[in-house]
Amino acid sequence: MITDTTQHPADSIENLIQSMSLREKIGQTVQLGLNSRFCNEETLERHLEEFPVGSVFCGGEIITSAEGKSAALREKLARAQRASKYPLLVAGDLESGAGQAVADKTRFPMLLSLAACRDEKMAYEYGKYTALEGREAGFNWTFAPVVDVQKNWLNPIVTNRGLGDDPQRVAALAGAIIEGMQDHGFAACAKHFPGDGVDFRDQHLITSVNSLTEEEWWEVHGGVFQSVIDRGVRTIMPGHIALPWCDSFRSSSGRPRPATLSEPILTQLLRERMGFEGVLVTDALIMAGFVGFASRSERLLQAFAAGNDVMLWPENDYYSLMERAIEEGRVSTERLEASVRRILTLKQQLGLLDAADAAEQFAPIEEDSEVRRQAVDLSARVADESITLVRNRENLLPLNSDRARSVLLHSAIPEQADSRYIDLLAETLEARGLEVTRHKNGNCLDVNKMEQEGKHWDAYLVVYSLQIHQMKNAVRPVGELGEVQWAQQYAETMKPITISLNTAYLTFDNPYLDTLVNAYSPCPTVIDALVRALFGELPFDGQSPVDLETIPERTGFLG
């Protein structure tokens, strides 16, 4: 699509809007999930001819079909663009760098690792290299950073995806990340408004609630979101999260209205009171926190009427529902065009409306080797400076490389979870010449029995690798993993060194741990830094991004 670049940008956007059909305008508000259905180019073309879209989301299936290679992904995106009349926004969850989405790019440690470094310059670089590598892979928009404040240790959403529990630190680091992204041609997205991290439930499974009072909310989540708005964040993602002080409405079944459906939250609070003028993109419309509130036809129209601009993965009947609503006057053309205008303005900011051929943004390119080198270096620096020694009461650390020659590596990991980083930890230890015996989960008596049989190791590492963002409603050593917690306390001749590769809150489940290292991220650079820190080759420079000092008061109740 070519726009007349001799015009003022606002004029060219208005002309573009007026040239669109009603269905094309509606399509601009739709983000299509590129999944396995669309691997066939003809299928994709037929779909986009009937259901035009303004943006696409690249997740697991399409990336898997591209074999994790940026060049292959760019070609698939070029096909989607060739089948589209207008330039596409391409979004993805690049919360920990472009390598989270595409295997041939750099994976950074999670945001909680970054928060443990407490370095705003590093946060800016985190955003910068996410943007530069993300653009090489074909993205121009990331649903990141997570700016939720972890106020409840039981919350299963924020965990290591966020920046901790201090609102001022979260705001400062998030703002730096956003500026790093947007200074380098990317659209950032602050999520999840009005703030996750309070409820102990998962909004994928239920409408969760931010139960803070108005005064508390402004001090915590409101302050963070206001800060990133003031620093120019271009997009915000509302979550399926209720905010009772702002919108007390409940359905006939008593279900609170989530922000994604709430005009008081999105329009009156976020837009009018807080002054946000950018694009609002819903969280996924398949989540139970959204679908459980009303019938499909009602909730889709309500979500748009509430103030959202982009609908993340709506059903195809969204088009006909919107067309009928506009014909009947339930949704105004002016309201639709206001969203299209914001979306096109974002595309203009990213330079997407200036190209003679929109598909050129996905043309084959050579990777910038210097960008790659700097991104890899940044990943290592974040890892090196984030490893946190929470407790060392028995002075077990650092390990003496001359004396610690054998290790029992006891992993606590869900049966179906990815164990590659436990594998990598074992391999890294073995590469140092250590004899590593691996034991996964098991019975509470296992370690004691091994001791009774006369077995002994120089070091006993208990490594928790819990599942994050897996709709489990908990990021804790529960179920079979609880037996690992039991087993390590039953050990009599060996003293456990406990390591967490994700959650920072193991001491809330077991306040009596004597030795604990928080590594925050299952990531290659973190595993390397962790092993060097264990052996005293790297200082434990990380500072806990969450408060762990209130354990006596909080042990035994829900937080």
TrEMBL record:
Residues 22-346 form the Glycoside hydrolase family 3 N-terminal domain. GO terms for molecular function: beta-N-acetylhexosaminidase activity. InterPro entries: GH (IPR017853), Glyco_hydro_3_AS (IPR019800), Glyco_hydro_3_C_sf (IPR036881), Glyco_hydro_3_N (IPR001764), Glyco_hydro_3_N_sf (IPR036962), NagZ_Beta-hexosaminidase (IPR050226). It catalyses: Hydrolysis of terminal non-reducing N-acetyl-D-hexosamine residues in N-acetyl-beta-D-hexosaminides. SUPFAM superfamilies: (Trans)glycosidases. Pfam families: Glyco_hydro_3. It comes from the Bacteria. GO terms for biological process: carbohydrate metabolic process; peptidoglycan turnover. It is an enzyme of class 3 (hydrolase). Keywords: Glycosidase, Hydrolase. Its EC number is 3.2.1.52. The keyword Repeat does not apply. Belongs to the glycosyl hydrolase 3 family. This is beta-N-acetylhexosaminidase.
